[in-house]
TrEMBL record:
Pathway: Pyrimidine metabolism; UMP biosynthesis via de novo pathway; UMP from orotate: step 1/2. GO terms for biological process: 'de novo' pyrimidine nucleobase biosynthetic process; 'de novo' UMP biosynthetic process; pyrimidine ribonucleoside biosynthetic process. Orotate binds at residues 35-36, 127, 155. This is Orotate phosphoribosyltransferase. The keyword Transport does not apply. Residues 45-168 form the Phosphoribosyltransferase domain. Belongs to the purine/pyrimidine phosphoribosyltransferase family. PyrE subfamily. HAMAP family: PyrE (MF_01208).
Amino acid sequence: MVKKFQEKFLKLAIEAKALQFGQYVLKSGRNSPYFFNASAFLEHGSLKSLSEILHEKVNDIGLKFDMVFGPAYKGIFLASLLANEMSVNKNVPVCFNRKELKDHGEGGALVGAKPNGKVLIVDDVLSSGLAISESIKILEPFDVDVVGALVTLNRQERGQESEKMASEELKDKGIPIYEVISLNDIVNSSNIISKKNLSLMNEYRNTYRGLDV
């Protein structure tokens, strides 16, 4: 059953044009009937609503962590939004990575707080799981416990190493995935998505969905 904060997110994503329907070619080469671009929230004036939704998800699952890590680039603002929303009750440090190393100023590959304690990775979309896997490698040299990854959308597609969903592959490695919304949730939202788009998305899901085991 789709929860209220998930419906709120889906409506917000459509209104902000973060979630669009049509014909799109993904990095994987797959033709997709939908496309998600979290950066659209940045020009829509919906950041407060988005930060509240992220916080609601964290509260819904009772997740405890000391700081957040946002993979460059979209994970940076999402992690910052969550940390800011939670700052009313506690300080949540933020760390993110650079895609290009800096050899002057503070230098290094990371910006913000030094990774420490229980870390939650926050990113926009889970497709193959590559971005999350790269984040884990970045955090490996530090004394941290990665408690999981929170994504706004889980496409529930096959991962990099098997026929399993990327989220299942990561779970097997000890990294649970928490999503605000999944492809299943979108397909089950017949009161929000048109029948035509639902049909196309359902067909896409049946073709590319990974195994949920």
